[in-house]
Amino acid sequence: MAETATTRRSRITPEREAELYEAVLDLLREVGYDSLTMDAVATRTRSSKATLYRQWGGKAELVARAIRHHKPVDPSAIDTGSLRGDFQALSHRQDDCRMEQDSALMRVLGTAAHTNPELLTALREWLIEPETAEMRRMVQRAVDRGEVRADNPAIDYVMHMIIGAFVARTLIDEEPPTQAFITSYINAVVIPALSA
């Protein structure tokens, strides 16, 4: 499927693709996933609906890829030489305002994914699985350096812990996630769990 998507995408310049993704995210923030339509995206971006379907196949893939494109952090580009340093670099790659916006957007999509299997599939393919693989590579480097035991059971839950921090911050503290909170959480929860 990824090869087909790449072939479809090649007709649009990277600049135009970025514009389309930003418009999709703006619409998501304005109306939510369920009310977002390909007609609205086509109107907002001055594209034809046929072009959008040809390039992305449907709303779910377009939204998932817009989120992926929007991510300010590429874990594969981070290697500070220590696990703590890698996590700190990850948490400092977006400012508090962007973190709050992204957290709100992910809550909207998380809710929508419960009733939209196509969205859940697209999010897994374009966002969750690639990010989980990158996180595993980051932790594997720490294992190779001797910072983390290879048999540490917490390795399988790193993404759960990170995502949990974002969700719990809003639900429990009624505050948006911030760099300071995420850094504190990583130092108090993630690093000790992996170092145990």
Automatic annotation (TrEMBL):
<dbReference type="InterPro" id="IPR036271">
    <property type="entry name" value="Tet_transcr_reg_TetR-rel_C_sf"/>
</dbReference>
<dbReference type="InterPro" id="IPR001647">
    <property type="entry name" value="HTH_TetR"/>
</dbReference>
<feature type="domain" description="HTH tetR-type">
    <location>
        <begin position="14"/>
        <end position="74"/>
    </location>
</feature>
<feature type="DNA-binding region" description="H-T-H motif">
    <location>
        <begin position="37"/>
        <end position="56"/>
    </location>
</feature>
<dbReference type="InterPro" id="IPR050109">
    <property type="entry name" value="HTH-type_TetR-like_transc_reg"/>
</dbReference>
<dbReference type="InterPro" id="IPR011075">
    <property type="entry name" value="TetR_C"/>
</dbReference>
<keyword id="KW-0238">DNA-binding</keyword>
<keyword id="KW-0804">Transcription</keyword>
<dbReference type="Pfam" id="PF16859">
    <property type="entry name" value="TetR_C_11"/>
</dbReference>
<dbReference type="Pfam" id="PF00440">
    <property type="entry name" value="TetR_N"/>
</dbReference>
<keyword id="KW-0805">Transcription regulation</keyword>
<protein>
    <submittedName>
        <fullName>TetR/AcrR family transcriptional regulator</fullName>
    </submittedName>
</protein>
<dbReference type="InterPro" id="IPR009057">
    <property type="entry name" value="Homeodomain-like_sf"/>
</dbReference>
